[in-house]
Amino acid sequence: MATFPEDDALVGEYAVPDDVRPVVDRVIGFIEEEVLPYEERHGDHVGGPLDYLDGEGLLKPETRAMQAEIRQRSADEGLYALHLPEEVGGGGLSLREMFYVQEAVFRYGTGHGSGVARAMLAWTEGPSPALVHLDDAQREEWLDPLVAGEETACICITEPGAGSDVTAVSTTAERDGDGWVLNGDKRYITNGPFADTAQVLARVEDADGPAHERMAMFLVDTENPGYEVGQPNLNIMMDGITSDVHLRDCRVDGDHLVGEVGDGLPLALSWVNWRRSGRPGMCAGLGRYLLDRMLTYAKEREAFGEPIGTNQAVQWPIVETATELHAVRDMGTRMLAAYDAETSLSDLDQPATARRKLSMLKYYPEDRLFDWADRAIQVLGGYGLMHAGGVERVFRVARNIRIPAGATEIQKRTIAKTLGLE
């Protein structure tokens, strides 16, 4: 089968273990045989820098239709929800195994920002480990369509006044007979404009105890008249899928509560930890993409009669990136394997050592990816600043991901706390 073209000097450097190789080969095969030809056939909607966005900065209907097509094809092949347990329709892969899958997907870069290739793998819009806690009836209604790639979701945690401090959410949930009424404003909600279902974190008004014990997670059908999509949030990635969300007397039935009152914060963190656990593989994949771009350019571009790669000023950033990639891959796979042996993302009571691992695995690979992307632009020079160079969008993605799912500073604070420094 086809494999991603890699510089001869790197063949075998970043190997995939034999136990994971079959599923990684399936993922690569799907991308090269299904996704890339599909994107080429629909180049009118994703071929240019911003062809995938409409006048408001949101994804065009045509682009969203392309994502939906790839998502459902991937689900049909059993690839979309590899991260979930088999008992809920997922692939049952461990976090260590998912590292190699994430790496393979992002090995192809970020495309044009349309997210068509990335749509083959569940991301923010997909089924999260938090939904494993649904009962059988709830799973059939809310989880199964997500696993099948038929619907998408969003999670409404962040608010204008509540970011890193999740316990500061002001969205309220009031009991109303057998149901609940939600009111509040959410901000920076990925897939907020297009989701079929929303998972909303709210504070229960009549609950007792400190803030974290009064929080609950609710499932909301976005066709609910109380769910309103607000203004688009036009971010540095220009992803076209982020917006405010408003809940205005949004009434939901009693069975739309996930778990119990008091489970809201750990459920929200379960989702957040899912995103953190995927960062090492994502960063390693994008890092390898950047390294290939640097090597190719350094060998082909000439200045003063020689390839620029013969100059130490060009060699060193490439050498540093190649070395650090090994460190991130080794750190990611070893620490994820250790996390797998200790607990799982669906465990609502995370040990301090597990929290520390996820915080380290989020901030360190992200910081390295930012360095790699910055070096790639510098090595490519003026061409690196151009969209055609293929690295400027990775730089924007690298800068963006250091904040969502817990800013770098919050990760370091968590690490310090688990080391007994608070």
From TrEMBL:
All residue ranges annotated as the Acyl-CoA oxidase/dehydrogenase middle domain in the record: 154-250
Highest taxon of source: Archaea
GO molecular function: oxidoreductase activity
InterPro entries: Acyl-CoA_DH_CS, Acyl-CoA_Oxase/DH_mid-dom, Acyl-CoA_Oxase/DH_mid-dom_sf, AcylCo_DH-like_C, AcylCo_DH/oxidase_C, AcylCoA_DH/ox_N, AcylCoA_DH/ox_N_sf, AcylCoA_DH/oxidase_NM_dom_sf
PROSITE patterns according to UniProt: ACYL_COA_DH_1 (PS00072)
Coiled-coil intervals, chain numbering: none
UniProt domain Acyl-CoA dehydrogenase/oxidase N-terminal: residue ranges: 63-150
Cofactor: FAD
EC number: 1.-.-.-
One Pfam family this sequence matches: Acyl-CoA_dh_M
Keywords, comma-separated and alphabetical: FAD, Flavoprotein, Oxidoreductase
Record-annotated Acyl-CoA dehydrogenase/oxidase C-terminal domain positions: 262-419
Family of this protein: Belongs to the acyl-CoA dehydrogenase family.
Protein known as: Acyl-CoA dehydrogenase family protein
Species annotation: Halobaculum lipolyticum
Lineage of producing organism: Archaea, Methanobacteriati, Methanobacteriota, Stenosarchaea group, Halobacteria
